[in-house]
């Protein structure tokens, strides 16, 4: 029984951010837009934005403000916080809050904390200018 539980847990952890989103993609296809600098960005549909808002509302007001500033996962930088992965996960790294999209990102983020902190800072600065 214990061995089966360990194998099941390892399978779930290994799946991480590779969760099957095929039904979500079929229902809501994001559209690509071009910014003035010429870089492509992805804009979610109204349903995706509503889902993000709903998931972020489950955070404390302070955490919600921080997650909204960061906007994207530090590991899966194309994954919006509060999107298809659900409520963002807050990690405290060297005294600083860092948000990730799901538990599957935790191990790699904690493996290189300085990289995660730098990415979170970069995302907050980038998204505060918009």
What would you note in describing this structure?
- The chain has 130 residues and is an alpha+beta fold.
- It has a domain of 71 residues.
- It is built from 6 helices and 4 strands; from the N terminus they run H-H-E-E-H-H-E-E-H-H.
- Strand 1 and strand 2 form a beta hairpin.
- It is globular, with a radius of gyration of 16 Å.
- It starts with a helix and ends with a helix.
- About 24% of the residues have low confidence.
Helical amount among residues, as a percent range?
Answer: 40-55%
What is the molecular shape? globular
SSE pattern:
HHEEHHEEHH
Describe the largest sheet: 2 strands, antiparallel
Total beta-strand segments: 4
From the N-terminal CA to the C-terminal CA, the straight-line distance is 52 Å
Q: Compute the number of helices.
A: 6
> Radius of gyration, Cα only, in angstroms?
16 Å
Keyword list:
alpha+beta; two-stranded antiparallel ribbon; 48% helix; 130 residues
Summarize the structure.
Helices cover 48% and strands 14% of the residues.
SSE blueprint:
Blueprint: H1 2-15, H2 22-27, E1 31-34, E2 40-43, H3 46-56, H4 61-70, E3 89-93, E4 96-100, H5 106-111, H6 113-128
Antiparallel strand pairs: 1-2, 3-4
């Amino acid at each position: 029984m214990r061995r089966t539980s360990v194998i099941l847990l390892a399978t779930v952890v290994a799946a991480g951010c590779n969760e099957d989103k095929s039904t979500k993609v079929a229902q809501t296809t994001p559209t690509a837009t071009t910014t003035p600098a010429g870089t492509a960005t992805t804009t979610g549909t109204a349903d995706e934005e509503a889902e993000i808002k709903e998931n972020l509302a489950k955070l404390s007001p302070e955490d919600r403000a921080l997650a909204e500033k960061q906007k994207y996962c530090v590991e899966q930088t194309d994954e919006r916080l509060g999107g298809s992965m659900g409520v963002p996960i807050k990690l405290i790294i060297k005294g600083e809050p860092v948000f990730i999209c799901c538990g599957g990102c935790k191990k790699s983020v904690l493996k290189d904390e300085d990289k995660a902190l730098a990415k979170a800072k970069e995302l907050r600065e980038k998204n505060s200018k918009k």
